[in-house]
Amino acid sequence: MGRRIVLFISTYLSAIAAPCWAHHAHDPEELGHHWEIAAYHNEIRFQMAAIATVFAAYLIVVRLAKTLRKWFSYKC
Amino acid sequence: MKSVWVIARLSILENSRKQVFHVLCLIMLAVIAGSTLLSIFTEGVKIKMLKDLCMTCILFAGAVLSIGLASTGIPNDIDSRVVYPILARPIARWHYVFGKFLGTAATVALAIAALSVVFCALIYCHQGHIDSFLATAALFAMLEAAVISAVAITLSTFTSTAVAALLSFMVYLFGTIKIGYLSKVLEKSPNSIAKTCGTVLYHVLPNLECFNLKAALVHGNSVPISYLLLVFSYGVCYTAFAVGAAALIFRGREV
Question: Which secondary structure element, helix H or strand E, spans residue B21, and what is its range?
Fold first, then answer.
């Protein structure tokens, strides 16, 4: 099972990365350092927001499950 | 929390006895020391080459050590049944996972610190003074190693050692070229399903390139403090998220 997963993921990622050679031509913005490129800033902010959202959703689900369990145990 | 420190200390001892730690540290020290032989260049170019080579070595050693140590920690404990007497004690599973992560991150940080000290000494011999930015660059290299360790530990909680190491290496590889190449490749992908799956994967992958401050050190550029703070918080958040996920997965796993 593990081997199949690795094989699938490696094939998929290799397929994505295969045409990398065609992207050697950079836009003028990409010749700068990464702290000067807006895409890096945006991606960092997006990922931090996504982590915060996932964490909040997890807390809500745990709280809800706890409440429901308590409620059902009380009813029964 | 005392149990976390005990497990972390044991993990540091265990990791520091592994062959991969000694071999990689010695190879990287040899490369860093050998970089002084770049005498064919003029002095200015030589120092730039020295800084570039040494920072590359430090970043690569940090990544490889993180993958090698973090992906073997938990599966080896399960295989050798060391984990049973630990978990039989009144220790929460997240304490164990967190302790393992802290131990691994501290071991890699020690290795990076040792390499950085040698690098500092070389720079001092050539320049006559030490770059103040070197400490910042080394700190962010440690943070990158912590992110990779956290990802490797998360993967090792539900896979075997080999699978975790391979997947962690792929995460490292694709995390490094994420914005430079993957985003462009995804933009031009003709298949919508592949594009959607790729976009999800793209946003899950850590952005490791932002921890690489080699260019700033080599060319003497200044990096805005706001950006450094943003990257630092990002590294801490991503690490905490990955370790939390590892603890959650390990909590539900039968060992």
Answer: helix B19-34
CB contact under 8 A, B184 and A23: yes
In chain A, % of residues over pLDDT 90: 33
Contacts B188 to A, Cβ<8 Å: 19
- b/e map B192-221, b = 16+ CB within 10 Å: eeebeebeebbeebbbbbbbbbbbbbbeee
Residue identified by tokens 């994420």 is: B178
pLDDT (tens digit, 9 = 90+) per residue, B167-182?
Answer: 999 999 999 988 888 8
Amino acid at B56: T
Interface of A with B in 16-55 (CB under 8 A): 16-17, 19-20, 23, 30, 33-35, 37, 39-41, 43-48, 50-52, 54-55
Residue A60 touches chain B, beta carbons under 8 Å = no
- CA pair distance B147, B108, nearest whole angstrom: 11
**3-state secondary structure string across chain A:** CHHHHHHHHHHHHHHHHHHHHHHCCCCHHHHCCHHHCHHHHHHHHHHHHHHHHHHHHHHHHHHHHHHHHHHHHHHC
Disruptive mutation site among A12, A26, A35, A58 for chain B (greatest number of B CBs within 10 Å): A35
Burial track B100-117 (b if 16+ CB lie within 10 A, e otherwise): bbbbbbbbbbbbbeebbe
Q: pLDDT per residue over A41-56, tens digit each?
A: 999 999 999 999 999 9
Location of structure tokens 């190693």: B145
User: Is B203 within 8 Å of A46 when comparing Cβ atoms?
Assistant: yes
CB contact under 8 A, B170 and A2: no
